[in-house]
Amino acid sequence: RWKHAVCGQQGEAAASSSASAAAGRSKHACVRDEAGDRDIRPELRPSSYRKSRARHHRSSSSIRQRFAIITPASLVSEQIQEHEQEAVWREQMSGYKRMRRQHQKQLIALENRLKAEMDEHKLRLQKEVETQANNTYIELERLAKKQAVQMDKEIKNTAAEEKRIQQQILVQQKKELTTFLDTQKKEYRLCRERMKEEMNDDFDTPKEEKQERLSRHKETMQHSQAEEEAQLLNQQRLVYERSCRALKRRSLIKKHEFEQEQMREELNKKKTQKEMEHALMIRQDESTQELESRQLQTLQRLRFELMRQQHQTELENQEEYNNRRQRELHRKHALERRQQPRNLKTLEMQIKKQFQDTCKVQNKQYKALRNHQLEVSPKSDHKALLKSLKEEQTRKLAQLAEQYEQSINEMMASQLLHLDQEQEAECQALRHQLHQEMELLDAYQNKTKAQMEEQHEREMQKLEQKASLRRAHLEQKIEEELASLHKERTEKIKHLFERQERELDMFDLESSRLGFGSLASFDFPKEEGR
């Protein structure tokens, strides 16, 4: 508004300067014309004088036409001052436009910098996610290799344990067999000694019969001991085979337990990695929200600062414009007050000219009346008649002069009062106009500030909604991934247990088919030294 007001003021100043210049030129032209027209009646001049006067009039007209373009010094200085004011105003507007363009460049530069910062932030977050995924893959691969090595080691340890227990069973059975054979030998010697004593006490039986009886008893004992030994060996073989089968069953169960332990370790590892991934996603979301909020605050602070600078510049320009309008009005009033005596003198001269014209008319009228009275009255009354007419003419001219003098005084008083009132009205109108323009500028700036505050509030709400929606999607994604992980965990454990149960059932079925019966409660021989 101050811009339009200044433009309007410049237009008014240009119009007033043009009007004053035209008035000055016309005034000077009128003065020159009046000076040129001041001449005695041509019919009373001789012809030579008229020809010389005509040549002088033509030369003076050519001179007036030649120098009619000369502008008074006051008008030139006024035009120079108006041109300088226009240049100052143009420079002021150029500075204002440069400031607006600079503000726009600052906003664009800040937006580009914030966009680059956000792109860099997103790229860094993406690299963090990729690094976390690679670390998870590496950890799971390392765990799988470690579990494979542990499984091989466990299988070897189980095989060694089976072999050791089998060797222990064989040693124990060998000891049992040795003890059994020693016991048989002792029993055989005792029976043979007892039979010999009985035969020695029996003197009635012949010696050959005794020998035969002893031989049969020996054969019977040996046959009985051989059967007992075979029975023991068969029993030991069954025990050994059943123990080996039970060992295999126990090894299978231990393998299943080890697989379950490895499965738990793998699932716990996946859960830990997934929790770390979720924690990273939450940290990234929080850092993104913090960065977005900080960037928005930075942008809004710059907008407020640029708006404050713009409003300050507009206010300074408006104040400068107001001061310039007031100075111009003061200069105009001062010029009017300086020109007022000249204007009053011109009006006074016009009134005096009217008075002179009126006097001439009255003189003509009195002259005609005097001639008429002299013609119709006797010659003896001419002197008194002339005296009375002269007195009457003098009296009326005095009245007329008094009237015109009063008119001049009233005209001067009214012109002075009119000038003061007009200037005061112009001052009041200018103050009112400038006050309205200042109020309009203030209202416009307040409206702009309120609109910017509303825009910033909407941006903050939009950012909060965006962050809340993104966080809700993230939490939903985390819940879905946890549910999927739990489902995978349940299915893997279920499949593992089902496979292990099938393997154990098939093993027990094979054991029953081989005649070993139930091996679930089989007791292994205790190790020596334990």
Automatic annotation (TrEMBL):
Location in or out of the cell: Cell membrane; Cytoplasm
Official protein name in the record: non-specific serine/threonine protein kinase
Where are stretches of biased composition, namely Basic and acidic residues? 30-44
Sequence ranges of Low complexity compositional bias: 13-23
| Keywords assigned | ATP-binding, Cell membrane, Coiled coil, Cytoplasm, DNA damage, Kinase, Membrane, Nucleotide-binding, Serine/threonine-protein kinase, Transferase
Q: Keyword Kinase: yes or no? A: yes
Entry membrane topology: Peripheral membrane protein
Source organism of this protein record:
Triplophysa rosa (Cave loach)
Instruction: Give the record's GO biological process terms.
Output: DNA damage response; regulation of cytoskeleton organization
Q: Which reaction does it catalyse?
A: L-threonyl-[protein] + ATP = O-phospho-L-threonyl-[protein] + ADP + H(+); L-seryl-[protein] + ATP = O-phospho-L-seryl-[protein] + ADP + H(+)
Give the protein family: Belongs to the protein kinase superfamily. STE Ser/Thr protein kinase family. STE20 subfamily.
